[in-house]
UniProtKB/TrEMBL annotation:
This is NADH-quinone oxidoreductase subunit N. It comes from Streptomyces rubiginosohelvolus. It is an enzyme of class 7 (translocase). It is a multi-pass membrane protein. InterPro entries: NADH-Q_OxRdtase_suN/2 (IPR010096), ND/Mrp_TM (IPR001750). It is found in: Cell membrane; Endomembrane system; Membrane. Keywords: Cell membrane, Membrane, NAD, Quinone, Translocase, Transmembrane, Transmembrane helix, Transport. Residues 166-469 form the NADH:quinone oxidoreductase/Mrp antiporter transmembrane domain. Its EC number is 7.1.1.-.
Length: 543
């Protein structure tokens, strides 16, 4: 972990040897030892347990893969599930949100790792999202290198779990890259698949450019403040020298660019559709939820904690990005051709871009009002994670019989798989913000209220227009589920004498995939019945 350089220098000078008179060495030495604070940082192992356990599990899976025969590789998937469940369990004793570690021992009170309420909630979202991704993947890794797949997924999840707890820029950047680099490999893990390789290359190149820009911004911020701790940066930006003001503003803007890419905010969204289409479907689901959580966590930390003094810079910028992102995502989703290959995944990709625009609204509002607006983003992210993973789970089920995964392939799904059709219809209505998806409606109202309370009336109007636009393609997809399947003969009446239609052949859904659909459906229904379970985050401070 990183400590302030000036503080470190002071502590080293303090430890310089002292000359003592003969016969007084022991007494004087004990006094000096008592006066000099220790520079050894204590470690709270419980606080860092969730990301640490996930990282250790990744290494264990990689090593175990060397010794397991091919017919037992499936055990690695169950080991991954167990590790993620254990990491989630370690969040229970952290729910008080009052633990910090890797703290500076001299000078200002600054820590590199903090397990506050924001950290615990985002870590729960990330680890639960990774857990559901494993369920989606268990029956899809037969043609993939299983050991590498589970290792990369756990490694990415460990970085994603570390990021919301990071409280200095160095740890933040490291966590971001640990979450991102394995994701590049996961997107391109389908060997010999041209579409997968192209998606991975596009994802990698665009991410590298964004990371380079962000690192340049971080270096500018460090040059202007002389520290990497977020709380210290906030204090020093309050009275930054006029000579360094332009440098600091440039650093703030460039740092935001890197996180805007991770959140898929327009105009940094161009990698999303091709990446989601080319990646294995469970990885597309993972990127849409966990990848987004990583980007928004980092964006919230640098804006609200590190850069509050420059709210006049990032506030208007994020408001414009929010309006642009939701508009681009919804308009592009409207243009999806139902008969185009993988059009269902493309629509979910563009939908995720539009949802990113909604998630940006409360962060922009925080620049004009208070940090409590951030809770609206967290509440909306929890709702979005549940229903979007559920939608991808049903898409994975349909893909088993219709590899093209076209929107037209969902026509008449209710006739063949009624429960899956009802679940997908519920998820789409939640994303649209319509009953019975009550949690989606309330989450959108919470985000809308954040914009109004901050005085961003124009942004609230743009959001309202986009919600109406999104209704079209969400309801259109929902209606397709309950139509008569193409080419299905009508059932003969009693007086026609013509043969009745043959029953449609059904394939048994894999148990892990069914479990994922059931879990997300149950969570969505529970949250719709008790929306305050997540909406309460919109009314409290998480830091």
């Amino acid at each position: 972990m990183t400590a302030d350089l000036s503080t470190t220098a002071t502590s080293l000078l303090t430890q310089a040897p002292h000359t003592t008179a003969p016969g007084t060495g022991d007494a004087t030495g004990s006094l000096v030892a008592a006066d000099v604070p220790s520079v050894v940082q204590s470690i709270d192992w419980l606080a860092i347990a969730p990301p640490t356990l996930t990282a250790l599990a990744a290494l264990a899976v990689l090593v175990a893969d060397l010794f397991l025969p091919a017919h037992r590789k499936r055990l690695l998937g169950y080991a991954t599930l167990t590790a993620l469940a254990a990491a989630l369990a370690f969040l229970i004793p952290l729910r008080s949100g009052d633990r910090s570690t890797f703290c500076v021992t001299t000078g200002a009170q600054a820590c590199s790792y903090t397990a506050d309420h924001f950290t615990v909630v985002i870590q729960a979202l990330v680890l639960a999202g990774a857990f559901l991704t494993v369920l989606l993947s268990l029956d899809d890794t037969r043609k993939l290198p299983a050991g590498e797949y589970w290792f990369l997924l756990l490694a990415s999840a460990s970085g994603a779990a570390l990021l919301p707890a990071s409280r200095d820029l160095a740890t933040l950047v490291v966590a971001l890259e640990v979450a991102s680099l394995p994701a590049f490999a996961l997107v391109g893990i389908k060997r010999g698949d041209r579409r997968s390789s192209e998606a991975a290359l596009k994802f990698f190149l665009s991410s590298v450019v964004a990371t380079a820009v962000m690192l340049l911004g971080v270096s500018f911020v460090y040059a202007a403040t002389g520290t990497l701790h977020l709380t210290e940066i906030a204090d020093r930006l309050d009275d930054v020298s006029p000579v360094l003001d332009t440098l600091a503003k440039t650093g703030v803007a460039l740092t935001l660019v890197g996180f805007a890419f991770k959140t898929a905010a327009a105009p940094f969204h161009f990698w999303v559709p091709d990446t989601y289409v080319g990646a294995p479907l469970p990885i597309a689901a993972y990127l849409s939820v966990v990848g987004k959580a990583v980007g928004f966590s980092g964006l919230i930390l640098v804006t609200v904690i590190a850069f509050p003094s420059y709210a006049d810079v990032w506030g208007p910028a994020l408001a414009v990005l929010a309006a642009l992102t939701m508009t681009v995502g919804n308009v592009a989703a409207l243009r999806q051709n139902a008969t185009r290959a993988r059009s269902a995944v493309r629509l979910l990709a563009w939908s995720s871009v539009a949802q990113a625009g909604y998630l940006l609204v409360p962060i922009a509002a925080a620049a004009y009002s208070s940090d409590e607006q951030i809770g609206s983003t967290v509440a909306y992210a929890l709702m979005y994670a549940v229903v979007n993973l559920g939608a991808f789970a049903v898409a994975a089920l349909v893909a088993r019989t219709h590899p093209g995964n076209r929107l037209s392939d969902y026509r008449g799904l209710y006739a063949t798989r009624p429960l899956a059709a009802l679940a997908l219809g519920f998820f789409l209505l939640c994303l649209a913000g319509l009953p019975p998806g009550i949690i989606g409606l309330f989450a959108k109202v919470t985000v809308f209220s954040a914009a109004v309370d901050a005085g961003l009336g124009w942004l609230a109007v743009v959001m309202a227009v986009n919600v109406v636009i999104a209704l079209y393609y969400y309801l259109q997809w929902t209606a397709i589920l309950f139509r008569t399947p193409d080419g299905a003969p009508e059932t003969a009446g009693p007086d026609t004498g013509s043969p009745a239609s043959a029953p449609t052949r059904r394939f048994r859904a894999p148990t892990p995939l069914t479990t994922a659909i059931v879990l997300t459906s149950a969570a969505g229904i529970l949250l719709s019945g008790v929306p305050q379970a997540v909406l309460r985050f919109a009314a409290v401070s998480l830091f």
